[in-house]
Amino acid sequence: MYSDGKTIQLNAGRYQAKIVTVGAGLAELTHHGRHVVIPHKPEEMPLAHLGKVLIPWPNRVANGCYHYNGKDYQLAVNDPILQAAIHGLLAWRDWQVSYQSTSEASLTIFLPPSYGYPFALSSEVIYRLDAASGLHVLIRSQNIGDESAPYGAGAHPYLTCNLQSIDSCVLTLPASEELPADRDFSASCLIGETRLDHAIKAAATRLSGRSDLPARRKICPHFYAATNPGYRSIPAKN
Fold it and tell me: Which residues form a coiled coil (predicted)?
């Protein structure tokens, strides 16, 4: 087994994807042999949280402290530079493969209560490749504890147009909120030297992202769909 766990190969038409079990991560996605996300080798530790699924919170919790339902909680600070708890608790855990076919895979995991996050979750990530529309990703969790739990989910692919510079690409993100943001990409804007490192909230129950090259250059295919992204409370099982 590699440092990133087991590797799952998915194929559909001209699309190919590699999924790794550690972090339920997307290690590679290609279309017509062109890279859609920055790849990493399963036998090597990936850059930062490259391709990982982020549960029960994406992004950073400042100082690891948060307040929920009248109580204060302290998470372990694992980003010492910014003094924050970053990207949840499951990015470096080995997920179990519960289903696998040539074009689809389901990975599951149990998150037990801990001092910083005393809530129990059962989570699943489903990757499905479609020959026409590309890669679809469903992230869902069930609260199996006795009280409501704070919850957020995200994914960490690094978009690329076949590993070329994206400075001349145009980006559209149909989001209703940016938490916070210096640039607004709800309408198409040239990426240029812009650096993005913040969370967004979907405008509807489904969020899609697309990055296009200007005319006369190939289009990076649409590849990602998330259902109900953002932060929320999950009711208890009862």
Answer: none
